[in-house]
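Chapter summary example.
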Amino acid sequence: MANAIRTALFAAALVLVVIVPPSAMASADPGVPTTGATVLGAGFSGKPFVLDGDMVIETIGLYESIRDYQDATNPDWVAWYDHALGGLWEHVLHDDGLLVALRGDLRPGFEVVDLSDPGNPVGLADVDANLFESGWLGDQALIVSGEDFLLAYDLVDPTEPVFASFRVLGLHAQSRWFSEWNSRLYIIDHDATLRVFDITTPLQPVDLGTVSLAGDRIDAMVAGDGVLYALVAGGGALDLVTYDLTDPLDPRETSRTNHTAAAGAVGLQLCAADELLLAGSSDALIRAYDVSDPTRLVEGYELPLVAEHLDVSDNRVFVMTGQDVRIFPRTAAAEQPGAPVVRSRLPRLQTIDGDGPVQIGQLHGDRNLIVPIDASNPRHPKVGAPFDTGLRGAFYYADDIGLMVTLNGSFQLVDLSVPLEPDWLGSVDLPRVYFFRAALTGEVAVLETGSIDVELRFYDLTDPMEPHFRTKVYDYGLQDIEGDIMVCSRSDRIRIYDVSDLDDPRFVRQVFFDDAVQEVHLHQYHAYVLVRDLSGARRIHSVRLTDPAYPVVLGSVELNHNAGELDAHDGRLYTYGYHICQIIDVADPEHLEIVAEFPAYGHTGPGLAFNGDVTTVGGWLVSMRDDGLSVSAAPDQIPTVASRLEPAYPNPLNPSTNIAFTVGSAQELTLAVHDVRGRLVAHLATGRFEAGRHTVRWNGEDSTGLPVASGVYLVRLHGKGLDASGTVTVVK
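The structure predicted for these 732 residues follows.
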């Protein structure tokens, strides 16, 4: 009687929860339109769900990447789907171009996405409902389950899912492993008991009853052609069992083989594709089975992996374990597959910066670490080995120098002239102050610090191994520095400094605005000032600073998003915030024009890095092409680090040496000599070099014409898309 009352009360409550009023069921936000820019790819990898052929959608919960894995070593990136505002995706169902994603408990419910064109996923509906841990999709219907209920939704109009029916089930907190054959739906009801539904009319599934199997519990199951495969635990072992489904209410066991005898092993994954069946368990065992004869399973190859997720495409086997997705070639069960391609889930970045194919990011979860980002192939940016700066704090970058500043004002300089091989430079310890903000060029660092009074401290970086304190100014609101100009801000103004003399920075003028100043970025002797009015609207003003004593406000443009950061590159100003990036053409600062808009970093992290016309957005490394700039080179044409510079000859230098290099296409390059501490010794050549081989002679003199001392020197050739280095020894 108590159980009956509980069931009735639960059913009544369930109706109230599930039958969501129209106001709570909204069409999905189509997201930020991409105009004037092209999404190229994303570096992140996640749980792979096979869509069709070798097409896969990889989900990390907030962002999804669609890739074609015909070539597993270099999969073709197809599309990126950003639903960061919609909640975490935990499980994906797919049928006939329609995708349903079940969300986690942070915002339970589901989303419906049109994937008829995988290159252009379109959000159709976003439903707030119960927490669903598994389900089935087909015939324009969605059937999902929770711990003790089953619900059906009508997807005839996928933009407006309509609740159709519900059923009460046995209590089962794990996946029910929906398996369908011949209009019969088999799910785990509880323990080793199946529940069977007739889904001839899927919106009104008919409960045909329960069936108990031989065992203590069912861990996983999947339907084949007229059979059901199940990982069944019992008697201290985990067995793979085949059931004949000729009589849907009386599944008949036709074969049973021991998958593992490991005590306490749990079945984690089961996946069937034609004559191949893959079973994974918690004791780090994935075993392949030949199921060409379902009544006699034949054991095949083994993979010593814990499969958190398994899926099989036409030519690939996908295994997710830990933070890695391992992509094996699909073979017959009797044939051991070759070595997998391993794609690791990328760490979240706090920020990214740089100009060229190899860029620099700061890790979000471990902020003392910086990592090189190889963006030479913008469709697949990759993260290199981390470098520990020794300090945990805010990271700044300019002209091949990194600056890591801690809260107490201490800072460490890092040599990033060869981004794949960072090295320490000088450091400063200021234990009795607090750090607020920094601005950096290749020669000057300014820190806004304070204990009682806030001050701007100027450091000369001419010798980056020994940063030299020059002076301080009592001011605050540091924004940016470029050349001889520094800008600070107040609530309604910017304050302009002449810093041509680091021993005597001079305040020269301030410019007032009607609205609150949020951010300032200096670019080509213009200040671009982001302001916000009382309504929250944002606007960019351009201010000419060629003569900082007489600043001139030239033009402005209104933004349509909550920008919070500014950056500039190649005559473009990039404004980005919580979820959007807008690109403004500033070639004519009097007439600012918004030329592009695309989804930015969402919840991930700020920062932009540039490689020609390609922008790498921080966080999950999404790459965008600015369609208004010249088309960048194909990935295999982009020079990579240390690939174009020949060894100096003769070496050691006696009395001179020839330095030869080859460039693939005409470009601006600089050839210079540095000592082992990174200090510039001599500029050997600067200018535009045509495609082909070039030779420059160095006679062992510094930039003043004096002979250098004996020792090892670094020869560096660098320009856009090329950063190569070698060594030469001087012996006297």
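To summarize the output: Residues 251-345 form one domain.
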